[in-house]
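ugh finaly. both done.
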Amino acid sequence: MDITIVGGGVCGLALAHELAPDHRVTVLESSPGPRGGGYMIDFFGPGVLAAERMGVIEELRRRGHVFDGVRYGLPDGSPSGTIDAAPLVNAAGGRYFSILRPEVELGLLAQLPESVDLRYGVRVVGVREDETRDAGVHDTGTCEPGTRDDGVRESGARRAGTRDAGTREAGVREFGTRDAGAREDGTESTATPDAAPGRPAVITAEGEVLESDLVVACDGVRSPIREHVAPGHGRILPMGYRAASYLFDDAQLAHELGQRMLMTDTIQRVGWLYAADAEQVGVMFTERVDPHDTERPTADPERLRRRFTGLHPQLDRALEHAPETFYDDLVAQSYAPRWSRGRVVLAGDAAHAPSLLAGQGTSLAIAGAEALARSLRATGPHVEAGLAEYERRWRPTADAVRRSGRLSASAFIPATTLQLRLQQVARRAIGLPGVSRLLSRQFIAA
């Protein structure tokens, strides 16, 4: 069947990889090319096993790195403790490594079947279903379109041409707008003469209508399609934190950092610093913010320097390299009480974002994509049954990680001096015989 995937990030590419042998797959990505910049993630959990079964794990490992651990530093530059990574790696049976999130995309892209029609620079602004079915045509509210990292870069990746799929007509509703076919009394028009029975369609910013047998939203935590599938749940669930990240060239600082990440021992605001390779350094800044804010912030290097100067001398050096555009967003989760409506389904962060601080978003995106593909394969032509099976099997895992993420987020950014002191005591206890192994196993299982 024809399948349209909205979003060419980790989840979208992983899903395209799995669906391509059996279906005609089109991937629509709003960014002009694969993302640059980004931040380092720890890759472990169900995504590693899924990547092994998909045959892409060696490509990801080649692009990844195994750090010795983390060292903690005080604002005056003095050390305040370390945590070794070896127990984590051993607890995961060796299935644990770090990798820049954009490198996950590039690794999946390198393994993507040639049959996949991948289109960059295509922004989806609306979704429509046959109104004789369950879902109909629905307003998706005012949720902003999903956005990718600032600072995208073009690459030599395949960029397929655009096939003609008709033009927008009455009965199509765009994200955040009134339906062109809605009557003045506010009820929905039932006339959709261009809709094929049971075939959903997406509408692009250029007015192109792309029909298919299945639409999969892999367009991130701010997915506008989530509101269509689960009305009232389109907005993100902010966790009260904000994160900014970028990469920069500094061979000397990369050498100084070596094989350990630096994390500041501070309250309210925390910085991470690591050597991405022999020449490049990555940095991430996180801080507590108003938990009621939902709007995506604007990246501002001057604000970043004002907020984070003084956390650690090496972080101060990193702030000197702050670019004009960089990743800057709220740390947030997503939730939908249902993942599919008719033949439109949510996947990855669009369905179950656990948040950046939970540490398993990429792992869940890959494993969830595989779960969806396997369910569709098992149910054959009964697509709705496949979507229900996917949610039944995968939701318990996704919900468990999301809950864990909410519980553990505060551990990354202590709110008070007392919390910081307790964390410092806990880090020293990790060095006791058996404690490190036990905590590592619990972390991997979370």
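ok and the 2nd:
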Amino acid sequence: MTARRSPSRPSPRLPPETECGVAPELMDYLFAESPEPAPTPVPEPSPAAAPQPGRSVARQVGDVLVESRLAGMGDADVRSTLARKLCRLLPDLPPGGADTVSTVATRALEQLARDHIVRVREALATAIKDIACAPPSVVATLARDVERTVAEPVLRCCAALGDEDLLDIVAAAPAGWALSAIARRHSIGAALSDAIAGSGHAEATGILLDNSGAVIAEPTLEALVEQSAHHPDWREKLARRPALPRRLALRLADFVDLAVVEALRRRGDLDDATVAEIAATTRRRIDWAEAPDSAEPPERRAVRLHRQGKLDETALSDAMSWNETGFVRAALTLRARVAPEVVDLILDAHDPQAVTALVWRAGLSMRCAMQIQARAAGIHPRAMLNARQGSGFPLSPAEMARHLERYGVGP
């Protein structure tokens, strides 16, 4: 038997396509009345036969849409109110979004996310940012909005915005405020942290380092420690990072920065031996600068230490901690047995492969090569050649020899 509509509440008559993007057949579903009861007495319904909760939600969604339509969807304030009301109903919609009610609400929200009035999109972004079950298509659109007041709340807070979208946004080189908003998210995985750190945006990277909810992989932390040669404000943030590996704590101590050293010494996860080594490194750096021969020209000092067999990696590290690039250039000339002009040419070319090859020829480590890339050659952090598996040279001996040949350096 075909169900009849109750004469007390006719279906609303709407245009073929409403301005909120909802097709008429979906609107018909929302306002379809339940079948009239049979004329014979019906027993009290059992709990299993009770009306489904989704039915009342469908009615609420329909009421909101019709109310907005009748009030005039051309009004921005009405559309802003519609956005807020629909967002409040999202947690009660059937999960999965495959049913008709969810389709109606999602299509309306998608339309609102593309609204030409900024304050409508702002109202939607503010209302939806804390809803974990928000439609992914809606939050993805809002997150890419060109207006900061629209995109920032979603980028920073919305749990419904997945890592795939966030990685795509970071890869598109957005404005700095967008990167900073992402860096402030409550939880950040290692891949996303790596993308933010690799963006080259110093402020966003500093925010990431302050974020205890951000997982930063050890290779990324190591690269940031090296890059902190150009970003002194990162050092104390790095020194406070949870689970900082011992070797990176010692590397941070290479910088003559008493605030950083004190932050490292206050950590509860470093043993006494590590703390003692940090203190010793700091003392050695200070002694380097205060030594009686510190006024000696850097080239002459390098020659003297070379003759004494003391022109080692420690001496280069001490010199770089005080930005004594003249000493570093002289040391590379002596240890690699090449002309000073060649060393100058390689360092001034900002060529990470050639710099690494020069350090390898000088008999120094890849760790030293990364320091020289950052401090003596001034290579941009994103262009630096990183170590393989934490400490190994990423190029084979044959490859490094070929890079040196380009600068006239033979076997």
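summary for the 2nd one i guess: The CA atoms of residues 76 and 120 lie 6 Å apart.
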